[in-house]
Each structure stands twice: as C-alpha cells, then as structure tokens.
Amino acid sequence: MEYDVIIGMEIHAELATKTKIFCACSTEFGAEENTHACPVCLGMPGVLPVLNEKVVEYATKAGLALNCNIANFSKMDRKNYFYPDLPKAYQTTQFDLPICTGGVVNIDVNGETKPIGITRIHIEEDAGKLLHEASDGTLVDTNRCGVPLIEIVSEPDMHGAEEARIFAEKIRNTLEYTGVSDCKMEEGSIRFDVNISVKEKGATVLGTRTEMKNLNSFRALVRAVHYESKRQIIEIKKGHRIIQETRKWDDTKGVSSSMRSKEEAHDYRYFPEPDLVPIVLTDAEIDHFRETLSELPEAKKARYISEFGLSEYDAQVLIASRLTAQYFEETVALYPQPKQISNWLMVEIPALLKEHELTMEKIPFSPAYLAELIHLIQDHTISGKIAKQVLALMFESNDSPKTIVKQKNWAQMSDTSALEEIIEKIVDDNPKSVQDIAAGNKKAYGFLTGQVMKATQGQANPQMANKIIREIVEKKLNN
Ligand SMILES: [Zn+2]
To answer: How far apart are CA 331 and CA 346, in angstroms?
Structure first.
C-alpha cells in the first residue's frame, strides 16, 4: 500500500516595527530580560492598548505579496488561556475576521509550478519567553510580550518534505523582500508549525493530522516531516489509530514526541477585544500599500534575466537573499558588468563569508570596492587569479583593491620588454618544449605559459605572455 503525505503550515513572523503592537516598548532583540515591558504589554488591570499603525501596513503588505484579499473591515479578538509567558492570560489576536484571506503562492517543484493556497493571515501579539535554567528553575522574560506577529495559515496543499521546504523558503524570501519582517530564523523572527497527515494513495478523505510546533530551521522542518510521516505510516500499518495531537520535534535526537492531545486542547473562548476599535481600511489605503510594495523576488528574477541577460540559474541564486540582490544592484549601478558581478557574488564572496563566519549583511566592503576589483581585472591591471587574493585581503583590511594591489606590488607585468627577457630565458631553459611544439604538440605552449606565470609570481598578463611565447618560439624554430 502506498501513502500520500499531506502538509499544511502555520507560519508566525514577527513584524519589523520598532515598537510593540499596543504600546511604545521597544521590540529590540537580545536586550536585558524584562527591560522592554510596561503595564500595557504586561496586561495590568485598567490599561488601554493602542494599535500600532505600522502593524496594519505590514500585515496588509504581506497579504498583498501573497496574493490575498485584504479586508476593508477586520477586528481584534481575545484568545483566553493561561500560560506563564502570557501575563495578560489572553492573547490579542484575530479570530473570525482576519485582515487577509484567500491568497496563493506559486512554488517551483522539479521545474513545475504548483499553487499553494493561503487560507488567511491574521495579526496577533507574541508571548514572552520562558528560560529554563538548570540552577534557577524556569524564569520569564517578558520583552517579547506584545511584539507584533502575523500568522500565515496555508491550505493542506503540500505533499512531502521537499514541497514543504520550498514553500517555507518562498514565504520567508517574500516576507524578507517586502521588509515586513527581518525573518531571522536564528532569533525566532519566523517560526514554522507543520500539520502532517497521511492517507492511502487515491483516498479522498484526509487522515488524522498531527501538528509539530516551532520548527526554526529548514533542515529541522524537512527532518521533522520525514520522521512524522514515516511514524504515522508505521502506526497505520500496525492497525493503530493516529491521535490528533500536538507533537514536539527534538532536532538533536531526531524524534518527535507527544505534547498534548486534542482532548486536552484549550477552549479559548474567543470574544471581540472590547478595548480596540475594528481595523477599517479603505480601498484607497490598500491601493497605496500596493503601490509602495517593494519589488518581489519573482519580478526581480524576471528583470535580472531580461535587463541584465543573466541565466535563470544565476538570477535565482542572486534573488534567494534580498541582501545579495541589493548588493548586486548597487554594484551594477557603479560598474555595469552584471555577469562578472554575479559571478563574484555567487562563488568567491560566499566562500569567504563562510570562511569568516559572516552573513551577507556583514560583508566587510562596499559595492564600490567590488566594482573597483572587477575593473582592475578588466583593464588587465591584475589577473583573475590575483583578484581572488585581493578579495581575500579585502575581508581582512579596510583597504581598497587598488591600495592592496599597490601594497603587494601585484599589478600585472604589462611591460613588454621585461616580459620578453623573462620568456626568452624560459624558452632557452626548456628546449624539450620547443622540440615538442616543432613536433606539433601545442600543449607545450601551456607548459611554457605556466613557467612564465611561476617566474613572475602570477603577475604576467597571460594573454600578453602567450603572444610573446609564440613569437619567440616561432623565431627559434625559423632560425
Ligand atoms: Zn509595553
């Protein structure tokens, strides 16, 4: 018996506002515990929340980027539950009237485009954080209480771990481009909950699903889906019933375990938040957000192919990160050699970033320096090989490529007479190569060029060296 794996996703993304959703507390990540908290976000009796306008703009923009309908009228609700990281004892969220509904995201799976439905996007607030300390027990950090979130809920349209990963990456990439969230997975700015069920191939009724919460890396997501779908298939084959439950993924051990079953699920007793007015957006306001939406990854990719003549593959690699795309465009504006620039941004620069344990945002030199480096190759001041060494040093000092080349005396030998002298000697020292060439073995030219590059420590201009070698060898053979 074969089985289909059916996956739906709930994605929480923290919005990139400077202040929290209902108060003026900072949303800064990594601040000292409980220093960004006030009576409003701690839910003290009698306080009144005020909705941060930017939250509405960001949620709307996320909805537009994911092709949703934006509601002219939506409202906030209270979801009641008690947990130590939620001092208000209710979360302010949206229940029956969310701000965005009915979207769609196209993902590319093995060269085919597949639409994944977006059921809804709603606005809500984050809870605090529990810190489980070995010596002090469990401590509560309330800095995250009231940080604005959007929750994106997908339709169960994905089949298998690969589609789930592609979808998750696409959502992250899109949100990153719109600027509504910084999407830093390592800081928990974007978190994925995955609903998984399996059914016999061809069956029309969905199986019972389990939910895996807070997967915070694409790797964990893929492993969790593989593990959980396999576990469910084994259970079904044994004749057991799948229990609807929330499960916890342990990425270190590579296993999932039960957290709570549906029987233990909360009754949240949602009701409209009485302290906040409904969110009313006019069509003109929605149009304004649409007009001010940044260029999205797909549009950018198409433009890179048509405007810069890049290959589909190159364009895809560049747009995979908003920062890389931005760096690319800034460099192209200074020095219009898109193919050269894309090569450096796709190969050498990522390798050095990795070596220095840096991310793209920490790239230690400006686009102007990359433009200068490429210019030095194109005007034959340095070879591509030397350029790689210059680049490595650009990661270690603040000097410009020109300064580094000067300091290291790496400018290519374009002085013909000096080069002729060196080549003359190399040709004299290698009579065997000259004989090989005379016998028709043109490969010997390559050997001689190698000797010249060695003798000049890579500073000879290879094209020029080649030309001179040929001239000198031919002169010798004609004598
Ligand atoms: Zn506050």
So the answer is: 14
User: If you measure from the C-alpha of residue 38 to the centroid of ligand 1, how many angstroms do you get, rounded to a whole number?
Assistant: 4
**What are 449-462's pLDDT values in tens digits?**
999 888 887 778 88
pLDDT (tens digit per residue) in 321-347: 889 999 999 999 999 999 999 999 999
- Please tell me the pTM assigned to this model: 0.81
Expressed in angstroms and rounded, the spacing between residue 212 Cα and the centre of ligand 1 is: 30
Structure tokens, 338:
């898109």
How do residues 183-196 score in pLDDT, each as one tens digit? 999 899 999 999 99
In the reported structure, the alpha carbon of residue 42 is separated from the centroid of ligand 1 by a whole-number distance in angstroms of 7
For 120, residues 6+ apart whose C-beta sits below 8 A from its C-beta are 68, 98, 100, 101, 102, 152, 153
Looking at this protein, which amino acid is placed at residue 119? T
Residue 287 Cα to ligand 1 middle (Å): 31
Indicate the residue type of 64. Answer: L
DSSP sequence for 314-372? HHHHHHTSHHHHHHHHHHHHHS--HHHHHHHHHTHHHHHHHHTT--GGG-SS-HHHHHH
Cα 128 to ligand 1 centre (Å): 12
CA 35 – ligand 1 centroid, Å: 10
Task: Give me ligand 1 centre to Cα 145, in Å.
Answer: 8
